Amino acid sequence: MRFAALSALWLAATAWAAVERSDDGNVRSIQLRTHTLKQPYLDSDMASRWYDFGGDTIVRTDSYIRLASERPSQNGWLFSRVPLTATNWEIEVEFKISGKNSLFGDGFAMWLTKDRGEAGPVFGHKNNFEGLGIFVDTYKNNRPGTVFPYVMAMVGDGKTTYNKDNDGKDQELAGCSARGLRNSKTPTKLRLTYFQDKSLKLELMYKTEDEWQLCFETNEPPTIPSVTYLGFSSETGELSDNHDIISIEAKNLYTTGGSSSKQPTTSGRGNSFKPAQGQSGGSWTWFIFKVILFFLVIGGGYVGYTAYRTNQKRTHRF
């Protein structure tokens, strides 16, 4: 009985953990398998079910997806096959920028855009894009007073051109310096969290494992196109580095009622942002999950009780 009951409780807890997010009591998450990518990356047909890649991208199924290698004039990309349609989401990416050269460049970009897999001059992707770009820039062109590597967000309207000459300073939404990100001895990650009309937050991990640094947060997030593709790209010029994607974990976020409050934060540019407010309202999805979990526990108890009664009968028989 004890074993069966514990098994039922473990199953319920596992199902619960699949949708729970602990850092905010009102926020739950469900993994988006269509936009999650982990080793070995490829299936038996040597292709990814949910992602396409092209250009100079190299896939090592036991290690990484290398968008650009430590060689001049490299250009590679990785893009989801289906659009990201979730209203609120969180995307966590483990990546690695490394190399042996004392002079290096240029960096890589994360994209949430209407266009996918189109090579170009903006970290390996097309210019005049429509959507959101997160740039991890390792080479300083002309931006006095800024420490590199520099991580910034840019919102594209399909007409605005990214100015590489000044590292996108005029097109920047928000950003921060990240000294020590390249060749870090600890895992390097970024986590982008978006609540429609509520907040956009970017966190980085590169100093200490499991310790996140706030890059920026704003309660006036950009409007992201309703149909966008998640992608990554990188390029090298005369200077080069290895730019690797290790894993991608995407989640659909939703709230279960109440509100959250956070202290005002400051971006890497010195701009102050107001705290993001949590959403309110129930969730039918969460209600359905709780009902399923309830019946799992009841079913487990019944199985345990049946096993116990059977065991008792056998014991008395002898």
From TrEMBL:
Residues 1-17 form the signal peptide. It is found in: Membrane. GO terms for molecular function: D-mannose binding. GO terms for cellular component: COPII-coated ER to Golgi transport vesicle; endoplasmic reticulum membrane; endoplasmic reticulum-Golgi intermediate compartment; Golgi membrane. The keyword Acyltransferase does not apply. It comes from the Eukaryota. One of its GO terms (biological process) is endoplasmic reticulum to Golgi vesicle-mediated transport. Residues 256-270 have a biased composition (Polar residues). Residues 29-253 form the L-type lectin-like domain. InterPro entries: ConA-like_dom_sf (IPR013320), Intracellular_Lectin-GPT (IPR051136), Lectin_leg (IPR005052). Keywords: Membrane, Signal, Transmembrane, Transmembrane helix. It is a single-pass type I membrane protein. Pfam families: Lectin_leg-like. Residues 256-280 are annotated as: Disordered. The chain crosses the membrane at residues 284-308. This is L-type lectin-like domain-containing protein.
